[in-house]
């Protein structure tokens, strides 16, 4: 029985295979598989250059399509030109702050001068007014009384002019200080944009 079983197995192994066959050789195996569809990346990120940086020189750029991990360097720009621009803006900001402080000091001095001029004009109106009232009381001659009334009208006119001039000067000083504030705000905004 063992001999018969061995004989059956040998005939089965010697029988030709049912499908197509080929002789094997050593070498590179190339298979082509045609598939229709889209190939998409799992995650892609667009990297933009800073908008207000001007001309930038690239020091390092990762290969196109390279796989990168979090924290890995992808792109490096030469920051020296940008650093110089930031330093220039910082200098401009310091200058604008100093100019504002100087304008504020000058505004305080001019305001004090204007207040003094108003006080002087009011004093003249009061002084001349006393002389005019003395003419009303028949203490001085009519000619002197008329001169005092004219002097009073003149002093009152000068007071009005001084008040109008001081009001215009205050508006002008406020406008000048507002211009300094706008310049400072602009320089600060430019500096923040450059530092981003």
Report what the structure shows:
The protein is mostly helical. It has 3 helices and 2 strands; from the N terminus they run H-E-E-H-H. The chain has a two-stranded antiparallel ribbon. The mean pLDDT is 81.
What is the first-to-last residue Cα distance? 91 Å
* Residue fraction in strands: under 5%
The overall average pLDDT, rounded, is 81
Q: How do the SSEs run, as a string of H and E?
A: HEEHH
For the report, how would you describe the main beta sheet?
2 strands, antiparallel
Radius of gyration: 48 Å
User: Can you count the beta strands?
Assistant: 2
Number of helices: 3
Q: Quick one: overall form? A: rod-shaped
Considering DSSP H and I runs of 4 or more, what fraction of the residues is helical? 55-70%
Structural class: mainly alpha
Task: Produce the secondary structure layout.
Layout: H1 2-14, E1 58-61, E2 75-77, H2 80-136, H3 142-195
């Amino acid at each position: 029985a063992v001999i018969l079983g061995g004989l059956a197995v040998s005939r089965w192994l010697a029988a030709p295979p049912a499908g197509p066959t080929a002789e094997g050789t050593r070498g590179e195996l190339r298979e082509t598989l045609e598939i229709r569809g889209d190939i998409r990346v799992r995650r892609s990120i667009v990297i933009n250059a800073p908008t207000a940086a001007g001309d930038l020189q690239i020091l390092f750029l990762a290969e196109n399509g390279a796989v990168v991990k979090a924290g890995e360097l992808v792109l490096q720009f030469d920051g020296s030109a940008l650093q110089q621009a930031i330093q220039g803006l910082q200098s401009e900001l310091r200058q604008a702050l100093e100019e504002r402080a100087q304008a504020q000091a000058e505004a305080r001095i001019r305001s004090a001068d204007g207040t003094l001029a108003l006080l002087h004009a009011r004093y003249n109106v009061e002084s001349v007014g006393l002389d005019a009232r003395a003419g009303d009381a028949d203490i001085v001659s009519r000619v002197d009384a008329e001169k005092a009334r004219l002097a009073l009208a003149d002093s009152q006119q000068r007071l009005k002019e001084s008040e109008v001039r001081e009001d215009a000067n205050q508006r002008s000083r406020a406008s000048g200080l507002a211009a300094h504030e706008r310049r400072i705000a602009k320089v600060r905004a430019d500096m923040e944009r450059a530092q981003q």
